[in-house]
Amino acid sequence: MRVLIFGAGGVGLGFMGDLAYRASARLVFADVNSALVESLANHRQYTISKADLERVTPLTVSGVEAFDTGRPASRDRLVAELAAADFCITSVGARVLPLVGRSIADALRDVPDRSPLNFLCCENHRDAASLLHDAVAEGLGREQAEARCGFVNSVVGRMCQNLTRADRDLPPLTPDLDAVILVEDYDPFPVDAGALRGPAPPMPCLEPVPTDRFVAYEHRKLYGHNGVHALLGVLGKARGYAYFYEAGQDPELDRLGRRAMWDEVGAALVRAHPQHFTEASMDAFASNLYARLVNPVFADEIQRGARDTLRMIRPEDGRLAVAALFVAAQGLQPAAMCQGVAAALRDNGLGIEGLTEVLAEAEPEAAAVVRELVENALTNDD
After folding, report:
1. Could you report the per-residue pLDDT of 316-340, keeping only the tens digit for each?
2. Do 323 and 337 touch, CB atoms closer than 8 A?
3. What is the pTM of this model?
4. Which of 18, 32, 208, 371, by CA, is between 20 and 30 Å from 64?
């Protein structure tokens, strides 16, 4: 099996490469980082570090190829790889994904007829598959794009950190690079089964989920994982903490994080998706996730989780403001999540006017609840 992975970053190398390697796949990475690509191509393997709640363990992934998509000759290589791949993975980030999609469309014109090629989209975005679909359709035409490709959303639950040897004394990615990739030892990988063309890729831990249930999984990831992670991040940043475990050790922030996880987002998910989540299953999920978020062994850096606080309150992102609105729409009071929204506003020098766009797109009753809670949080902080 041959797998083409666009993006040799934390998710591509630290999660997708790990899972595909366990399936004995031949891995081909496409990236614009020339030094990284050259090192991967020369060594044909790399090492990541996996953290559970007790220890960090190194893992070497071998059978690796790589090519630089920034070079003029890369188009011919991309054509060859798209022709040979059993499936593809994108992990380049939402901003870059349309550029990758245009390159894919251009290369597919010269790819001989073959079975439809699935692209598993692993960007941390509400609908990355649509971004890729639209970019490929722009170049190939909608009919050709949908006939030749499957654009598949996924839920990436494993957290990955891109570090250096100066940050953590861990094995480098390759012997001649200073880069370190530290990931969680967490494997579940749901994908939208309704978007797949043909059978699901034979990768361990990949779970093809019917589309209606996949939406529930997306909400759980976006509002539960991303939302509570962002909450602890912005509040921890405001208090000068460097790591998420420090926020978890702060009694007030820990109380807010737990309230958000269980009483607000968790309860709202059960109300919104009763056919998929029960109180017991959500409690088990929340307990596992919260322990991982504040895990001192993984030592997730606040700067990773709170590097773009303005995005967190935008309607297209969803991890703070939209998460609070989701909770309010289920008839609950998102007081803790709104503390995070207020902190994100303050971090950007904004008042309640910073929520004008996201509140305008929400249900009026939910918007009124969130507006009042955020205004109270801003006033009390003053």
Report:
1. 887 899 999 999 999 999 999 999 9
2. yes
3. 0.94
4. 208
